[in-house]
Each structure stands twice: as C-alpha cells, then as structure tokens.
Amino acid sequence: MGYLAPQTLTDALSALSRNAGARIVAGGTDFFPSLGEGLAPETIVDITRVAELRGITATESGWRIGAAARWSDVIRADLPPCFDALKAASREVGSVQIQNAGTVAGNLCNASPAADGVPPLLALGASVEIAGPGGAMRRMPLGDFLLGVRKTALGPGEILAAVHVPAQPEGSRSAFRKLGSRRYMVISIVMVAANLWVVGGRIAGARVAVGAASPVAQRLPELEAALLGLPVGAGGPFTSAQHLTGLSPIADVRGSAEYRAEAVVQLCDRAIRGALTQGLHHG
Predict the structure, then answer these.
(1) Domain around 225
(2) From residue 236, how far is each of 20, 135, 231, 232, 272 by CA, in Å?
(3) How many domains, in total, are found in the chain?
(4) Residues 243 and 220: beta-carbon distance below 8 Å
(5) Does the model's pTM come out above 0.85?
(6) Is residue 108 part of a domain?
(7) Residue 275 located in a structural domain
(8) What's the average pLDDT block by block, 10 residues per block, for the chain (283 residues)?
(9) Contact at 8 Å (CB) between 175 and 271?
C-alpha cells in the first residue's frame, strides 16, 4: 500500500488525480475499521500535514473549521456559546486518544447516521467547502453534502477542505444530548443538538437537529417553528410526535424504531431546555 503525505492542498489534489483509486485519510479512526476483511486501497493520501486544512479560525462571515482540525482542537478552541453543542459532541467522540486523532471533516465524510458531529453542525447552519481538480472550489449546505448512509456529494478527485459556520444571531446558545447503551465511548442510539436565540425573553429562532433516527441527520422544521415566541421560562414539553414527521428511525441491536422515536421526543426537550439553561449560565 502506497502512502503519500502532501504538504499543500494543490499537491494533495494532484496525488488523487495521479493515483487511481487513492483514498484520503486524516485521523484514520473510521477509515481502517471500515475496511473490515476487504482489501486496502493501493494508495492512501494523508492530508494531516496540509497547513491550509488545519485550524479553527474566525472569518468575516463566521468561522472556518479546517478539514484536518481534530476533535480536541474543537474542545480547546475559544468559541462562543453557540458552539457549546459541538464542543459537547466532540467530547463524546470515542476516547481522548480518538479525539486527538479523529477530524471533524472525517466524521462528515464517513457519513454514518450516528456521526456525533453532524447534528451540532446542522444546528449551526454549517456548509462545506470542497476542493476539486484544477483548483476548483465549491460550497454547499451540510445537509446537501450528506446523501445517505456512507454516501456524500464528493466527486472523483475532490477533497472536503473545510466546514464553514456562519455568524450566528446575537445571544445564540446551544446544547447537545446523546443516548447510548452506556455512558462513555458508545455509538449513539439517538442524539439531538439545539441552537436557540432569544429576544425580549422569548425564543426568536431555533435550529434543532436529530441524528441516528434516519439515514442522515435532519433538522426538525416543525419543531423549530413551534418554538418561536415561547417564553424562556416555558417548562415544556416542547416536543411531540407531530414534530418528527421527517424522521424514519430504524430498528437494530441498539434499539427498536419505536424506542428511538420516543427517545427523540425526550432528547429534544432536554436539548432545548439545556440550550436555554446554557444561556443563563453564559449571561
């Protein structure tokens, strides 16, 4: 198996174009287990040394999370309260060793329905930046990038270069809640991220996203609309089955479809209350 470690994005794209069937690797925490008993690719392209793909930086329009940014980078970054859900999800991604190796972009490209990083990024309205052959660049909403189980919109020779988070409304606060079969290092049965902002003591806007309850994580527009105008002190319940029409929970070894549907209702309420409480803490 050939191993290439380019130091620029141009060289990484060139390596992909020169080596048919080459695969991109960053942290490798999902890549190698996913091979199972299958054959490894002839060439892997390690992008962790590409300086352009590192770091988490503020931009004129929000924030940029480089493709090689690790979960531990997210945890340590000085970010506003709207990122609290993403930071909480980062701490749920495997062990500390996994957090020090695994990357945010790798979690997206792996396209698992249970990817912990996806709901918080959806709740932030994130988009992805894709680099292609010849230096072509394109952007798309994260929700359009994820096409299904293990399927993304990446084309041949393309690299997910960065995740972009737009500037959030003033006072945005967020929370992440995850249900697993045990407390630590577990694949999610269901997880929810809520991002809320408040004006005049009432909820002025909301984004709520659910993972592991459909082939790809999804936002809940019916619930988001129902939250508008509610007072910060509302005790709930905020969520009912009528808010979950876009979900299609599956049954597997971790839980039945019915159990997941019931769990989503409870976790949405906990995430919403958590986001409102976070606002009080940060205020």
Answers:
(1) 173-282
(2) 54, 50, 10, 10, 9
(3) 1
(4) yes
(5) yes
(6) no
(7) yes
(8) 94 94 89 77 94 96 97 97 96 88 93 93 98 94 96 96 97 93 68 96 97 94 97 89 91 86 95 83 43
(9) yes
